[in-house]
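Now for a concrete sample entry.
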Amino acid sequence: MALIASFMGGFDQPLDNPDSKLELAGRWAYALGIATVLLGSLAGIGWVGFKFLLVPGARAAGWIPPAGGVAAPSQQRRQRRQCPLPTVAGEPVWRGDKDVLKEDRLKLFRTVYNFQAWAAHRSTQRYLRHFMGLFRSRIVSGLRVPLLLIALESTLVCAYEAARNAQLLPAVFRSIQIRAPMLFSLSSFALSLLLVFRTNQSYARFDEGRRLWSVMANRCRDIMRQACSYLGPPHRDLLGVLCRWVQAFPWVLKNYVRQNKTWEADLGHLLRPAELAALLATPNPPLLALQIITELLDRLPISTKQRLRLDVFCSDLADVVGASERLLTTPIPLSYTRHTARFLVIWLALLPFSIYNQCGWVTVLSSIILGFFLLSIEEIGVTIEEPFNILPLSEINKRVCADMARYPQQMDGVVSLIDDATGTARPNTNQHFVPVAQFIASKGEGGRGKASKGEDAAKNGSGGGAGAGAEDSGAMIS
C-alpha cells in the first residue's frame, strides 16, 4: 500500500494530455513490475527455506512423516523428539542430512581414461564441449539450491533499490547499499587463500587414495607372479586357492571403504559361501583376507627365504589397509571446512549490497556467476576429499584380477619358452620346509661360526704370519 500511495502521490496533473496518460501507464507498469519482482523474490526465498530447511528439520524432529511414508505413532514421534540429534565434531546433524541426488551422481565421476579419452581431453574443442555441458554439470547440479538462493536474494536487493530510486517507496525506506568496496577487495584475498588450501589438501588426499590402490594392485600381482615362479606347474591346486584369495582381496578392500556394499556381486564367483560368510562375520574383512593369504603362503612347499619375500608383500597390503582407514575416518580439519563455508556464505550474501550502484540489474547475473565460480571450487574440494567414492575402483579391480588370473594360465607357456631358450629343464622346486625361527637361528649360527673360524686362523697365523705374508706377496708379484 505504501508503494501504491507513493506512486499515486506524484500524479496530480490532468489526464487529458496523451503524454501524461502514457507516462501514467508506464509508471503503473513499472511499479507493478517492481512489486511483482519483490513479491516473487520473497516468495522464492520462503519456498526454498521451507523446502530445504524447515521440512528436513521437521522430519528430523518427528513432527511430520518421512517422504513417501506414513506418520509414525505418537509415542514413536515423542521418543524421536526426546532423542538428541547425532553430532559430528560437536555440530548437530539432521537425520537424513544427505543429498541423495548428489550421492547417486558420484558414480559418474568414476572414469578410466584410455588413449581416445586422452586425445579428447587435449583437443582444442574441449572449450566448446565443456561450455555446452555447463547445465549438465554434476557440480552445477550439486549447487542448485545455493545458486537459487543467491539469485533470489540479489533480485530482491535490485528490486528494492530500483523501487527506491524511482521514488516508488516512501522516504522512510533508506538505501541498503554497502558503500565500502574496499571491504570486499581486502577479504577476497583471505577467501582465495582458504579455497586454495582446501582444494590442495583435498587433491592430496585424492592422489594418495589412487596411489594406495596402485600399491595394492602391484603387490597382489607380485604375490601371484612369484608364487607361480616358485611353485611351477606341479602345484596348480595350491596356486588355484591362492589365486582366488589374492583376487578377492581388492574387492574386499573396495567394499570395506565404500558405504554401498556389493559383496555377493563382487565375490560370489571367487569365494565359497562359507568363505564369504566368514568375511561378512568379521568387523575388518581385509585383515581376515590377509590372514588367510598369509596362512596359504606358509603352507606352500617353498623355501623360507621365498616365504619371507612373499610375507613382505602381505605387510605392504596391511599398510594399504591402514592408510585407507586413515583417509576414510579422518577428514581435513573440520575448522577449515566450516570456516570456508561460513566465509563464502557471508561474502556472497553481502555481495549484491556492494555492487548494485555500479552494476544495476546486472548484479543478479554477476552474483550468480561469482557464486558459481567460488562455490564450485569449494564443492570440488569437498567432493574429492573422500577419494574412494569417486575413484573407479571396480574397473581397476577388474584389470588387476584379470592380470592375476593370467599368471597360472601362462605358466606352461612361459616354462616351455625358457626351456627352449636355455636348453635346460625346470629344476625341482620341492623345497624342504624350514620354520622361520629356525631359519633365522641357523643364519645367526652360521655367522658366528664364520667369525670363530676367522679368529682361530688369526691366532694360528700369528707365528708364521710373516712367512705366509711373504709367500702371498711373492705370489702376487709373480
